[in-house]
């Protein structure tokens, strides 16, 4: 536990639950807050395990972009297979817009 986490817990008298990607708790909380069904949601990210794998484990579509953390080997990850791959977010949006009615 980090020093800041300890101080926060001590000051609030509450045990902290630290969550983040690829935790299903993280994705489920975001989906619940947004009132969105996972099967109707898309996660666009550059991290094959945390973004794409985490989203797919919750039933979301996972779209990998070749920016930021992306590495060419990610396209052939042994466990996580993106639903689609785009060079960047703009290319994904350009592909998505014509499908919106």
UniProtKB/TrEMBL annotation:
One Pfam family cited in the UniProt record for this chain: Hydrolase_like
A Gene Ontology term for the protein's cellular component: cytosol
One MF annotation (Gene Ontology) recorded for this entry: inorganic diphosphate phosphatase activity
Gene3D superfamilies according to UniProt: HAD superfamily/HAD-like (3.40.50.1000)
Protein name, per record: Phospholysine phosphohistidine inorganic pyrophosphate phosphatase-like
Organism: Plakobranchus ocellatus
